[in-house]
Amino acid sequence: MGEETDKKPGKKEKVPRQKMAEQEPQERVKNFREVPFGFSGDQAMLEASRCLQCKKPKCIDGCPVNVNIPEFIGLVEQGKFIEAAWKIKEQNALPAICGRVCPQEEQCEALCVLGKKQKPVSIGYLERFVADQERASGKLQLPQKRPASGKKAAIIGCGPAGLTAAGELIKLGHEVIIFEALHLPGGVLVYGIPEFRLPKAIVQAEVDYLKALGVKVECDIVVGKTITVDELFEQGFHIIFVGTGAGLPQFMDIPGEELNGVYSANEFLTRNNLMKAYEFPESDTPILHGKKVATIGGGNVAMDSARTALRLGAEKSYIVYRRSRTEMPARIDELEHAEQEGIEFHLLTLPIEILKNENGYVRAMVCRKMELGEPDASGRRRPVPIKGSEFTMEVDIVVVAIGNRPNPLIPKTTPGLQTQRWGGIVADEETGKTSRDHIYAGGDIVTGAATVILAMGAGKKAAYSIHKELTGEDLTMKKTPEDQKSEG
User: Fold this and answer.
1) For residue 319, what are the β-bridge partners?
2) Strand pairing report for 439-441 and 239-242
3) Domain count along the chain
């Protein structure tokens, strides 16, 4: 398909990619409210008008859950915002979440044909807009469900993978119960991602949508401790899907990591996001407030931690990362927001020791400067120490955000469940099948820490494979269950 230009007759004029209004940096660092305000209706329609409506849309190939992107955008251009949300929900039950936290720039937008000569269509911003419009309107449309199959599925973990698997299975007529270890549903969406990036009311609204479909959610159930996987089978479940994520923090194994004032990013964010430590003493959970906070890492979790520290009152919030900005895995939006808010980046810097004061609390961090060598297995240039470059950074809180591993509880209490060396469950990439019959797995528990939308894609694939095992019917990821039904 040819590219649009404003010189060709019969073609639309070039329209610049629309920008979302957002809180000013100096204001937003004082609160935990969501940073972007979202599109207006006029902005959304204007942005939607940029879509070329390709006959063979590549953007769909970049979406792990196969949303019909041109079709929903076409509805937005016509001003049919609620219908656009319904179109997305044929394939994606969590659009308000995906529109906020998915790395569209690396997936659907990366394949947008318009992006070859202009900026790609803001697919994520439009998804967020229509989902918010639907929620605000109260016009909740529940899809038609298949007749009850008599089959019962247990979903372990109420994060993105588990929620998606549950949503697909309930539409296909199966009874679904989610078991969540925490006291609120949502998994990493509620404990890991800050309010200023993903308001918890939105997560709850998405969970309520699944409950309206018939999904049951039982919280405060630690599978592997409260009840085992095999005991769930004994209670009559035909299928079990494990979507417990990767919530076990990793540390650097350097001297001083045991000191008061050193947090894993998991604990730091969970205390704030799930336990509302920023409202202490109105909330029950306290947290140390530092004047100079160093966050170690370069991903989205590191940005979330550093930006949270500012909102807790830090005078200085640092990102300490052993590679350069180019190698940082964080989303562009998150990097830009962090920079706008005054986060100081100490790049090509490796912490090697944390020092304590006379009371056993953090007082400083010893670091070493690095330079980039040849690419490593990740494709990024390997950081190499510079001899004699050590220096001391004065800090009073250190947050370690260098990655997470799966909790070993379920593998250890489920005989015959094969795992990777690093603790992840071995599961087929396309089906989610594990080494145990009738047990499937997907999301971070299989891949290690990744994105919300990839976990959702895994949950959807597993749901279709589970349905095939339970009924013999073969559904494909490219089609909705309704499409398959109409073909039959």
Assistant:
1) 295, 345
2) parallel
3) 3
Rounded CA separation 479/467 (Å): 14
Structure tokens at 140: 């909740």
Element (H, E) at 272: helix 265-273
Question: Which among 79, 103, 137 is the end of a domain?
Answer: 137
Is residue 110 scored above 60 in pLDDT? yes
**What pLDDT digit, counting tens, does each position of 242-281 carry?**
999 998 999 999 999 999 999 999 999 999 999 999 999 9
Q: Which of 402, 419, 450 is the last residue of a domain?
A: 402
Residue 292 DSSP SS3: strand
Identity at 44, one-letter amino acid code: A
Query: Does 393 share its domain with 440?
Result: no
Whichever domain contains 99, its CATH number is: 1.10.1060.10
| Per-residue pLDDT, 416 | 96
Same domain assignment for residues 393 and 452: no
**What secondary structure letter does DSSP report for 118?**
S
Percentages helix, strand, coil for the chain (3-state, rounded to 5) are 35, 20, 45
Confidence bin at 222 (pLDDT 50/70/90): very high
> CA 190, 195, 201 angle in degrees (round to 5)?
65
Q: Name every residue whose Cβ is closer than 8 Å to that of residue 26 and which is 6 or more positions away in sequence.
A: none
- Find how far residue 30's CA is from the centre of its chain: 24
**Percent with pLDDT over 70 in the chain:** 95
Give the span between the Cα atoms of 132 and 233, in whole angstroms.
Answer: 39
Taking the C-alpha atoms of residue 186 and residue 101, their distance in angstroms, rounded to an integer, is 14
- Six-digit token pair at 283? 């909330």
Same domain, 217 and 197: yes
- Which residues make Cβ contacts (< 8 Å) with residue 194, sequence separation at least 6? 32, 269, 272, 273, 304, 307, 308
DSSP designation for 397? E
Closest by Cα among 41, 23, 104 to 78: 41
* 420: in domain: yes
What is the distance between the alpha carbons of residues 185 and 179, in angstroms, rounded to a whole number?
9
Which 3 state secondary structure label does DSSP give 250?
coil
How far are the Cα atoms of 95, 108, 164, 259, 418 from residue 98, in angstroms, in the given order? 5, 12, 12, 37, 31
Phi-psi region of 360 (alpha: psi -120 to 50; beta: other; left: phi over 0): left
Are 277 and 384 in the same domain? yes
3-class secondary-structure state, position 353: strand
Nearest to 250, CA basis, from 403, 353, 397, 352:
403
DSSP 361: B
- The vertex-136 CA angle with 134 and 140, nearest 5°, equals 45
CB-CB neighbours of 146 under 10 Å: 16
Identity at 224, one-letter amino acid code:
G
Q: Which residues contact 424 (CB under 8 A, 6 or more apart)?
A: 246, 405, 406, 445, 446, 447, 448
Q: pTM of this prediction?
A: 0.90
Q: Which tokens go with 331?
A: 């989303």
Instruction: Name the 3-class secondary structure at 223.
Output: strand
